[in-house]
From TrEMBL:
<dbReference type="GO" id="GO:0071555">
    <property type="term" value="P:cell wall organization"/>
</dbReference>
<keyword id="KW-1133">Transmembrane helix</keyword>
<dbReference type="Pfam" id="PF01098">
    <property type="entry name" value="FTSW_RODA_SPOVE"/>
</dbReference>
<dbReference type="GO" id="GO:0008955">
    <property type="term" value="F:peptidoglycan glycosyltransferase activity"/>
</dbReference>
<keyword id="KW-0961">Cell wall biogenesis/degradation</keyword>
<protein>
    <recommendedName>
        <fullName>Probable peptidoglycan glycosyltransferase FtsW</fullName>
        <ecNumber>2.4.99.28</ecNumber>
    </recommendedName>
</protein>
<dbReference type="GO" id="GO:0008360">
    <property type="term" value="P:regulation of cell shape"/>
</dbReference>
<feature type="transmembrane region" description="Helical">
    <location>
        <begin position="198"/>
        <end position="215"/>
    </location>
</feature>
<dbReference type="GO" id="GO:0015648">
    <property type="term" value="F:lipid-linked peptidoglycan transporter activity"/>
</dbReference>
<dbReference type="GO" id="GO:0009252">
    <property type="term" value="P:peptidoglycan biosynthetic process"/>
</dbReference>
<keyword id="KW-0472">Membrane</keyword>
<comment type="function">
    <text>Peptidoglycan polymerase that is essential for cell division.</text>
</comment>
<feature type="transmembrane region" description="Helical">
    <location>
        <begin position="56"/>
        <end position="74"/>
    </location>
</feature>
<feature type="transmembrane region" description="Helical">
    <location>
        <begin position="149"/>
        <end position="168"/>
    </location>
</feature>
<feature type="transmembrane region" description="Helical">
    <location>
        <begin position="86"/>
        <end position="105"/>
    </location>
</feature>
<keyword id="KW-0808">Transferase</keyword>
<keyword id="KW-0328">Glycosyltransferase</keyword>
Amino acid sequence: MDAVARQATRYDAIQGRFDPWLLGIALALVCLGVVMVGSASVAIAEVEGSSPYYYLIRHSVFICGGLVLAAWIARTELKTIEQHSWWLLLACFVLLLLVFVPGIGKTVNGARRWLNLGIAGFQAVEAVKLCFIIWMASYLKRFSEEVSATWPAMLKPLGVAVALVVILLMQPDFGSSSLLLAITAGMLVLGGVNMPRMFAPVLIGLPMLAVIAIAEPYRMRRITSFTNPFDDPFGAGYQLANALMAVGRGEWLGVGLGASVQKLSYLPEAHTDFIMAVIAEEFGFLGVVLVVGLFTAFVGRAFWVGYKCVEMRRHFAGYCAFGIGLWIGLQALVSIGVNLGLLPTKGLTLPLISYGGSSVMMTCVAVGLLLRVSYELDRAQRQVALRRGESAAATSGRSAYIPPTAQPLPSMASAARVAVSKGADATRGTSRLRQRIEPILGRGA
């Protein structure tokens, strides 16, 4: 028992390491975001009568807060997080409903999505995305076989997502609603859902989303202006028209850092939703490729970590990695697509780059959770390697020992050689004995 306990203690003492690729790419995106928020927000801050560095300072404070939270969750065991998955699901509904409470929720730009925290506002849906991903990962781990075999197990997470979407549409927040449904569908597919069975909810959901999109006049104007924003460049197409002018002006290498013209009160939300247009103007096609490449590398690495976790039967960790990769990848895809005129305008920020306290902080927390997943994966791989090494050493030691009964019998020739050798040894021994006793007894005749 003592040996077993010592062996278990030795395994537990093994430490992992955070994935250097995930950490390096995330830090590169954060640093790029700090630079671009500082560049894109100067004119906006001056128009509002604030210091030119007002938004840069606030963004830096949010980044520091997000890094602290990321470090905290990166040091928390995944099994502890998994134990609280039901409470996190309950927190999703509580946070989304709190925005409707007078004195707690507040309206910004016609949408009631924010919680008034006194010193700053907090967009509840940003926390809901991460909490829902954690619950979804726990659910898929517990019911992976049922999800792939039965309708009720597959429809339950879809029903939870639809309930959250209904509350989001009441705020209203169509962009986050679509993103949450896409994350749910993606995690179900990666969790092994039966694909033909998945088609039915998709075929029902897509027309419903289309009806919801065209039901509101302002959403319909966004869709129609997306096809040709220059038909109404000072009305419905104003945002996209100015974003496209910024992108076109950047050409191949851009006009240089800080030299953007569109950010000078022409491009709305230049430091938040349309920061990618400013990047395209100041760094050109090369800057766009760099940002797309960083997000592609980050999402690809997150999926690789998730795949390795599932391969080692660490399903909760793997599904968390898949969910975070889907979240950041889909949100970055939509944000970049909107800025380049590939998708209709949506109020989604560019993760880790755009200004926004709640978005930046919760994305940092998500990255911290992903780093924790990579840490425990590396630790598990080291433990498995140690066990295999010890097993190989034990097997090698047993093969070197051959019991006496298992030793091969000598051949007839070798037996004869052994007998002759033993006879010669006996003769030499008798001769030596005679030499010792003859001086005493005398020689015989």
